[in-house]
Design a protein that fits this description.
about 35% helix; rod-shaped; Immunoglobulin-like; 16 strands; 3 helices; single chain; five-stranded mixed β-sheet; about 40% strand; about 325 residues; four-stranded antiparallel β-sheet
Length: about 325
């Protein structure tokens, strides 16, 4: 039984350890930049170095850039980093063929134990700006259960005589797709501060990019910010945990039944032993009584023979039979 209990506790411990190992993948890698964000002028590019420190047991890290538009690339596609050591790779953002605007993507650092995501945002502005923008979002204003994203935008006229400009604001996914967008014309004498709302039609918990640009002719001023949509309770695949739980429950049930069965067998054996002992005692008592009765009969026979009430032949035969019965009964005691 002790071995069975040890096996149960060992399986439970293994299951808990496996769960925490799966859920703690991100802690196996330290990244010096949680986000890559840059603002460049059109037809230019910029380099940014990312340093990784391996704090886990994984050694090989695959680097994969993901975006709808190819606005960045990395100089390394794979890094081998021993535990406790560091390595770096360079991200090149922008190109001469990239149009003015805001681009979103991410770098996926994958190992055999899981993934780490680094968001990448690039703003491409005009070389000469007539208008500019600054977007701000309060994370506490994004409430769970609401698909409305509220934010503030400051629009600036940098000295252009014409006041009107095209104002565009949108929400981008991390792979660069536009999820929600609106556009309007605004008059900007010197500075305008606006509060706007966009609807994010998704229940997925993730990081998103709020992108704003103000345009007048060939002039495009940009502003972007990364925000996280509130986490919703999502159904996850716990099939492994459920299966392990069922197996452990069945194992515990089997051990309990086995223990109860053995305990019952031991109790039954003790009961039978007690009954046999009682039976033996009863038999012993009966046999003793019979022996005493035969000895009494033998004494009576001897007194009858002494008083000449029976013949010698009858006496000898009766004595022989009684003695033989007494000897047999004594063997049963």
């Amino acid at each position: 039984m002790k071995k069975g209990l040890f096996l149960v506790f060992f399986l439970l411990f293994s299951l808990i350890c496996s769960f925490y190992l799966v859920s703690a993948v991100i802690s196996n890698l330290e990244i010096d930049s949680s986000i890559i964000k840059s603002v460049i002028k059109d037809e230019t590019s910029v380099n940014q170095t990312i340093t990784l420190v391996n704090t886990g047991n994984s050694k090989t890290f695959i680097i994969n850039g993901v975006s709808k538009y190819p606005f960045f690339y990395t100089d390394e596609l794979l890094l081998d980093i021993n535990k406790g050591e560091s390595a770096s790779f360079t991200v090149v953002l922008g190109s001469s063929e990239l149009k003015k605007g805001i681009y979103a993507g991410y770098i996926n650092l994958s190992t055999e134990r899981g993934n780490n995501i680094i968001p990448v945002i690039l703003e491409v502005e005009s070389r000469e700006l007539l208008f500019d923008a600054l977007v701000e979002i309060d994370p506490t204003s994004i409430v769970s259960g609401s698909n409305e994203v509220s934010f503030d935008v400051s629009l600036y006229n940098l000295g252009f005589p014409t006041k009107n400009a095209i104002f565009n604001y949108s929400i981008l996914s991390l792979n660069g797709e536009t999820l929600s967008s609106e556009q309007e014309t605004v008059d900007i004498e010197r500075q305008v501060r606006l509060t706007k709302n966009l609807i994010l039609n998704t229940n997925r918990s993730d990081d998103y990019v709020l992108a704003v640009y103000v345009q007048q002719g060939a002039s495009v001023g940009t502003s972007a910010v990364l925000f996280s949509y509130p986490r919703h309770i999502e159904k996850k695949n716990f099939s492994f945990v459920i299966a392990a739980f069922i197996i452990i429950v069945l194992l515990i049930f089997f051990l309990i039944i086995n223990y109860l069965w053995k305990a019952k067998a031991i109790r039954d054996a003790k009961n039978w032993s007690s009954k046999i002992s009682e039976i033996n005692k009863i038999k012993f008592s009966d046999n003793a009584k019979k022996i005493r009765r035969l000895q009494y009969q033998l004494n009576v026979l001897e007194r009858a023979y002494s008083s000449h009430y029976v013949t010698k032949e009858s006496y000898m035969e009766g004595k022989r039979q009684i003695t033989s019965l007494i000897a047999k009964l004594k063997k049963r005691l």
